[in-house]
Amino acid sequence: MTEGRKLRAGLIGLGAMGRNHGRVLSNLDGVELVGVVDPAGDVTGALRAPVVPELGDLLAMGIDYAVVACPTALHERIGLELAANGVCALIEKPLAQSVEAATRLVEAFESAGLVAGVGHIERYNPALQSLRTRLEAGELGEVFQVVTRRQGPFPHRIADVGVVMDLATHDIDLTAWVTGREYASVAARTVSRSGRLHEDMVAVVGQLSDGTMVNHLVNWLSPLKERSTVVTGDKGCFVADTLTADLTFYANAAIDTEWEALRAFRGVAEGDMVRYAIPKREPLLVEHERFRDAVEGKQSDIVTLRQGLRTVQVAAGLLESASDGKVVSVAPTSSDAEPALR
């Protein structure tokens, strides 16, 4: 990019998430939102950029990168066309609705040498960023278990995937990311109570590569909106609420002397509780800033397509387990393994 020139960005999709992307892109330093693709047009009239019906119309405007916020079933077709035209892309999660489609996207962008990322926005939540930093520093000691709960009312905007691909992919990605460990195996049960084709509730038991136990409860059937991540280890537990971006630590009050440390683990007692003061920037803005920096060639922490593919692989394992009633191994290949953080 020429020094001083703004990046030219495009947006594909003006659903609920697409409108949020449009709001951020319209005010992002160093970026100009030059066009938006949506067959229905700009129903809100809030965008300053022109809205066109086809991707070809947007490509003709000349863009450096695009944000893909259309339905998941369209990610592969749109992404492959962007890659073929030399356009970098930030693709909303999940990367694609199948492992095969996600793999084709990875290969297309990698072979073209283009910057591409996946919008796993929870990585930019202040509570989870602080949690990850504290786990890396060893503040919890050995990690025993990660438990997430993600539930709320049914979003009528989602029609092409079920709760596993839409919501549980958040928990799969954030769990691997905060712990620095890959999933090794998963077992899941799903139900569909809303009369839709896809599942709307899932319960997961899994294991990470180091033996850490994982539990996820995800549904679209509750009037209670909940987004919680609890990580338990030998020094206590962290509770991250990603709705409020609060992080709380509950300490194990067992006081170890040098002699006590030589003995076997004997249980815990309730100790101090600390709620941390965390700077709370909007996760979506941080996500866009990181991706902008990556497109500009700067060192930047984005969710790579390979990481997004890995999340789709684990989600596919959940659906396979729920269908077959068995534990599914999701051991990574050497190409998708992420480096351990601890």
Can you offer a commentary on this structure?
The protein has 342 residues and is an alpha/beta fold. It folds into 2 domains: 7-120 and 285-302, 3-Layer(aba) Sandwich (Rossmann fold); 123-280 and 311-329, Dihydrodipicolinate Reductase, domain 2 (2-Layer Sandwich), CATH 3.30.360. 30% of the residues lie in helices and 26% in strands. The protein has 8 helices and 15 strands. The chain has helices at 16-25, 55-60, 75-84, 99-112, 126-136, 163-179, 283-295, 305-324, and strands at residues 7-12, 31-37, 51-52, 65-68, 88-92, 116-119, 143-151, 183-191, 201-208, 213-219, 226-233, 236-241, 246-252, 270-275, 328-329. The strands form 2 sheets. A 9-stranded mixed sheet has the order 14-13-12-11-7-10-9-8-15. Strand 11 (226-233) and strand 12 form a beta hairpin. Helix 3 (75-84) runs parallel beside helix 4 (99-112). The longest helix is centred in the last third of the chain and has 20 residues, at 305-324. The chain is globular. It starts with 6 loop residues before the first strand and ends in a 13-residue tail after the last strand. 44% of the residues are buried.
**How many separate structural domains?**
2
Shape: globular
| C-alpha end-to-end distance | 36 Å
The total strand number stands at 15
Rounded to the nearest angstrom, the radius of gyration is 21 Å
CATH architecture classification name of the largest domain: 2-Layer Sandwich
Taken in chain order, the helices and strands follow as EHEEHEHEHEHEHEEEEEEEHHE
**Any idea of the CATH class of the largest domain?**
Alpha Beta
